[in-house]
């Protein structure tokens, strides 16, 4: 990292050490993506209840981020654990949810030596599995870490939405978030890598006094509903529901007991799956 960027980091109180500015700075992440009503956590509680999961019990949040959801579940009696690839996110989550267990781990290779009643994977975290092998391995690990008939709940972008729809691909989306008295501007461009079946993102950050913009790249695997069903069934799951809305990030607001739409044309894709048969070694 150039010395002038290190100096700016110290002055602004932000970290710019890795390829993801938001995960380097958990408090900024929460400012950029607020959830004061705990919609994501309440969404999980609702679908778990609907499909026969325990009201409390144990829960593993994969891609736990800041621990915001884990704190909500912990305060309502769940035994929570979380994993994330970002060390700074995990440190932040431990402070936010002291009763939880949080580890730095790769979602494609984790081993926690215990099983859970529920596993969650929200906000497109599953789509960081870019290859078929990554997806198979991740879902097999989820199955191995679930009790018999435990539930896997996931929420992500919907690959089918991009069939003829360019709404999210047109132009550059600019946004400024205020944090600690500084306005951080992001300019985001999305495009589809058809050969790799990836939604690619370029996000450029700058802020007052920033010596040079941060140019960061990432990508999500695009999955279609029937394709996702096939991966889940192959990994030892019974698919209980696949729906596009409502969810924590849909235009049609989520509320408890809302009917689940199976049109599957929306921007988001959600599924609930039950672990079947005997799981493998943890």
TrEMBL record:
Please identify the protein, giving its name as recorded: Methyltransferase domain-containing protein
Q: Kindly give the Pfam families that the UniProt entry links to this protein.
A: Methyltransf_25
Q: What are this entry's molecular-function GO terms? A: methyltransferase activity
Quote the SUPFAM superfamilies the UniProt record gives: S-adenosyl-L-methionine-dependent methyltransferases (SSF53335)
Keywords in alphabetical order, please: Methyltransferase, S-adenosyl-L-methionine, Transferase
Organism equals Saccharopolyspora erythraea (strain ATCC 11635 / DSM 40517 / JCM 4748 / NBRC 13426 / NCIMB 8594 / NRRL 2338)
**Which PANTHER family has this protein been placed in?**
METHYLTRANSFERASE, UBIQUINONE BIOSYNTHESIS O-METHYLTRANSFERASE, MITOCHONDRIAL
- A biological-process GO annotation: methylation
């Amino acid at each position: 990292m150039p010395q002038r960027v290190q100096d700016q980091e110290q002055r602004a109180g932000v970290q710019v050490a890795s390829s993801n500015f938001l995960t380097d700075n958990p408090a900024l992440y929460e400012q950029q993506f607020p959830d004061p009503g705990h919609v994501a956590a309440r969404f999980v509680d609702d679908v778990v209840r609907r499909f026969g999961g325990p009201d409390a019990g144990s829960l593993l949040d994969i891609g736990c981020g800041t621990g915001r959801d884990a704190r909500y579940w912990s305060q309502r009696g769940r035994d929570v654990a979380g994993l994330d690839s970002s060390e700074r996110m995990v440190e932040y989550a431990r402070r936010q949810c002291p009763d939880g267990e949080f580890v730095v781990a790769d979602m494609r290779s984790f081993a926690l030596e215990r099983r859970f009643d529920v596993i969650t994977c929200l906000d497109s975290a599953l789509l960081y599995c870019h290859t078929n092998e990554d997806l198979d391995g991740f879902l097999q690990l989820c199955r191995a870490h679930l009790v018999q008939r435990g539930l896997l709940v996931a929420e992500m972008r919907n690959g089918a939405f991009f069939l003829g729809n360019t709404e999210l691909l047109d132009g550059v989306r600019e946004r400024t978030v205020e944090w600690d008295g500084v306005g951080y501007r992001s300019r985001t461009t999305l495009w589809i890598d058809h050969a790799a079946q990836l939604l690619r993102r370029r996000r450029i950050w700058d802020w007052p006094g920033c010596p040079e913009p941060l140019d960061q790249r990432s990508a999500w695997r695009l999955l279609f509903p029937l394709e996702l069903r096939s991966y889940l069934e192959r990994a030892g799951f019974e698919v209980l529901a696949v729906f596009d809305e409502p969810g924590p990030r849909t235009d049609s607001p989520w509320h408890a007991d809302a009917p689940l739409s199976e049109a599957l044309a929306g921007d988001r894709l959600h599924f609930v799956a039950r672990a079947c048969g005997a799981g493998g070694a943890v």
